[in-house]
Amino acid sequence: MTFEEKPEGNGSLVDESQLDLDAKHQANGKPGASGKAKLSARQEAYAKCNLPRKSLNTYTWQEIQRHNQKTDQWLVINRKVYDVTGWADRHPGGRQVLKHYAGEDATDVFRAMHLDPDIVRLYLKPLLIGELAPEEPNQERNKNARLVEDFQELRRTLETLNMFNANLGFFFLHLTQILILEALAWVIVWHFGSGWLITIFISFLLTVSQAQGSFLQHDMGHLSIFKKSKWNRLMHKFVMGHLKGLSAKWWNYRHFQHHVKTNIYPKDPDIDAGPLFVLGDLQPVEYGKKKIKFFDYEKQHLIFCLVSPFLIPVYFYPESILHMCHRRHWEDIAWAISFYIRYFITFSPFYGIFGTMVLIYLVKILESPWIVYITQMSHIPMKVSKEENRDWFSAQVLATCNVEHSFFNDWFTGHLNFQIEHHLFPTMPRHNCHKVAPLVKSLCAKYGLPYVNKPMLKAFGDILRALKKYGALWKEAYCTHSEI
Predict the structure, then answer these.
(1) What is the largest CA-CA distance in the chain?
(2) Positive/negative CA dihedral, 194, 199, 205, 208
(3) Among the residues of 328-382, which ranges form H helices?
């Protein structure tokens, strides 16, 4: 879909839950050409494409690529050029996501990250400033146009096959599993007392519940369950805030950057881990040449094993709290407080206030390595680089890998063993990822791209082997370059 009219005045976008409501109001009372039916929001969006064309400014890629600064951000979607500078701070996915794509073609990432782009496109109109010149290709010249077109055709095929439709029963059972484990832990303490063995046992039950809650909030954060964004966001706040005690908006801020620029240093916050770790082939050398040594990075693979139990309780939880307070996300703060209130009501009669806090952090310490290894096994061993402006398909395939498909692996990883498919299609319900994997693998083979799929234990080991390799690169650069 494209817009043919030149925008007038200053407009702003709103999030999709508002878009659905606004679009419905716009459609009311506007009959179609036949006078028999009213236009839906999506039909109205398509109808606008047929309005008489007004001239638009035309730009070359060279001109567009100059607008890639914080105070000057242009991007291209379906050959249309948008100036998002003034709206970046209001973007529901965070301003950094737009900054990362300033001066680039954002067609595929726009389609990947939005549940219903047709609705969002209605509200892009005030930001429209022009279009690509007729002689310009659809994407930058360094990208493989045939690969881009084949990937877009693959997505259209998957949409036709209803691969983006969720099985609500699947996710209901997943939520039920979490709630049963939480309730079972309380029943066991109530019935058997709070002895050490019982406490250890319920800690494992609560750890499983928390880990599975992490996977479920991930689904909701990507809007992959409900057809309406507002229901995904509401349930995301419930699971992330009430069941886990974290901020949904903090997670979105970090995770969306990770998705749009996977393994791109320093744009992906998940691999911008300095000074604790140096990752990839470039950052270790950079640190080594500059004589940066917070500790001996040659041993960082051992440090990773030691700190992984503490990354969630000691790093991510405080970061989430600071994010909520600094940005005044009062709703997220209320949801997070309800997590602690629930735990204190449930367990303080048996453990007291201090004992309940110890239980909470014990569970987080047990959950942390589970989540850290699952999330990092598909990225740390893969290509880590600075910005190369690759096409969406190549960028995701090179930066991610899969772990073998089995019932246990799917459950244990929350289907994040299909990271390639998930990164290509973030809004796709996870239970469909294994169905589309053969098609993705076929496209990789056609263009000579690696499709990496490995056993889970090997994937865990590859994290440590990659960290050891990166540490050796740092050591070599540190020892062979004079201090600057």
Answers:
(1) 79
(2) positive
(3) 330-376
d(CA 53, CA 3): 9
β-strands 453-454, 402-403 pairing: parallel
Euclidean distance between CA atoms 346 and 363, whole angstroms: 15
- Distance, in Å, from the CA atom of 445 to the CA atom of 147, rounded to the nearest integer, reads 12
The distance in angstroms from the start CA to the end CA of the chain is: 53
Main-chain phi, psi angles of 131, to 5 degrees = -150, 165
Q: Is the CB of residue 279 less than 8 Å from the CB of residue 470?
A: yes
Residue type at position 294: F
Q: CA–CA separation, 376 vs 121, rounded Å?
A: 34
Which of helix, strand or coil describes residue 47? Answer: helix
From the CA atom positions of the chain, what is the Rg in Å? 24
DSSP string, 272-328: --TTT---TTTHHHHHHHTT--SS-GGGHHHHHHHHGGGIIIIIIHHHHHHHHHHHT
**Token pair of 355, please?**
């004992």
**In contact, 224 and 428? CB cutoff 8 Å:** yes
Residue position matching structure tokens 């994290």: 463
Stated as kind and residue range, the H or E segment containing 259 is helix 248-260
Task: Give the whole-angstrom CA distance, residue 478 versus residue 470.
Answer: 12
Q: Report if pTM > 0.85.
A: yes
Give φ, ψ of 16 to 5 degrees: -65, -25
**Calculated CA dihedral for residues 19, 22, 25, 31, nearest 10 degrees:** -50
Task: Calculate the alpha carbon distances from 248 to 178, 234, 334 in Å.
Answer: 18, 10, 12
| Two tokens, residue 472 | 């050796």
Q: Of the segments 80-94, 150-164, 275-289, which one has the largest average pLDDT value?
A: 150-164
Residue with tokens 């499709």: 451
Each residue's pLDDT tens digit, 215-274: 999 999 999 999 999 999 999 999 999 999 999 999 999 999 999 999 999 999 999 887
pLDDT at 213 over 60: yes
CB-CB contact of 269 with 254 (8 Å): yes
